[in-house]
C-alpha cells in the first residue's frame, strides 16, 4: 500500500521539507476513550514508528483486529490536524490528553504536534466539561507537565 502512495506525483501529494513525508492539507481524527488516534493505540509499537507513511496494525485492541494506519510522522507533517471529540463519554480522555502529561506512548493523542502546521480540537460542551484551561493562546503548553 505504501509503495502505491509513494508513486503519487509530488505535484499532487507534496512532500515536506525533509522530502520524505507527505504534506496533507488536513488530517481529521477522532479520539478513542483510551487516547488512541487513527489506529495508533497506547503502548503499541506503531506509536513509536519514525519511518514509513502507513503501517499494518495486527491484533488491534479494538475491532476490527486487522487495520492500517498512518504513522505519527505523516500526521504531524500535515498543514492542519483536527481532533474531534463529542459527548460526555469523551470528557475524561480529553482532560487527560490536554491537561495531564503522560508517559511517552501512553496517550497517542498527546503525540500529535504538527511540525509546521496547526492542531485544533473540536469539542462540544460535554466533551470539554472537565477542562480547566483558561488561555489557549499557546498550544505548545499543552498538555501540562505537572
From TrEMBL:
<dbReference type="GO" id="GO:0006098">
    <property type="term" value="P:pentose-phosphate shunt"/>
</dbReference>
<protein>
    <submittedName>
        <fullName>6-phosphogluconolactonase</fullName>
    </submittedName>
</protein>
<dbReference type="InterPro" id="IPR037171">
    <property type="entry name" value="NagB/RpiA_transferase-like"/>
</dbReference>
<feature type="domain" description="Glucosamine/galactosamine-6-phosphate isomerase">
    <location>
        <begin position="19"/>
        <end position="121"/>
    </location>
</feature>
<dbReference type="GO" id="GO:0005975">
    <property type="term" value="P:carbohydrate metabolic process"/>
</dbReference>
<dbReference type="InterPro" id="IPR006148">
    <property type="entry name" value="Glc/Gal-6P_isomerase"/>
</dbReference>
<dbReference type="Pfam" id="PF01182">
    <property type="entry name" value="Glucosamine_iso"/>
</dbReference>
<dbReference type="InterPro" id="IPR039104">
    <property type="entry name" value="6PGL"/>
</dbReference>
<comment type="pathway">
    <text>Carbohydrate degradation; pentose phosphate pathway.</text>
</comment>
Amino acid at each position: 500500500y505504501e509503495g502505491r502512495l509513494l508513486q503519487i506525483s509530488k505535484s499532487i501529494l507534496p512532500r515536506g521539507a525533509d522530502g520524505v513525508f507527505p504534506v496533507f492539507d488536513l488530517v481529521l481524527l477522532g479520539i478513542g476513550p483510551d487516547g488512541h488516534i487513527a489506529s495508533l493505540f497506547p503502548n503499541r509499537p506503531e506509536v513509536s514508528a519514525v519511518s514509513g507513511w502507513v503501517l499494518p496494525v495486527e491484533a488491534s485492541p479494538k475491532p476490527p483486529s486487522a487495520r492500517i494506519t498512518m504513522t505519527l510522522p505523516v500526521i504531524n507533517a500535515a498543514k492542519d490536524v483536527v481532533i474531534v471529540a463529542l459527548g460526555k463519554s469523551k470528557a475524561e480522555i480529553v482532560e487527560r490528553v490536554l491537561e495531564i502529561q503522560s508517559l511517552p506512548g501512553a496517550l497517542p493523542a498527546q503525540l500529535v504536534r504538527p511540525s509546521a502546521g496547526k492542531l485544533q480540537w473540536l469539542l462540544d460542551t460535554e466533551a470539554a466539561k472537565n477542562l480547566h484551561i483558561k488561555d489557549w493562546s499557546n498550544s505548545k503548553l499543552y498538555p501540562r507537565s505537572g
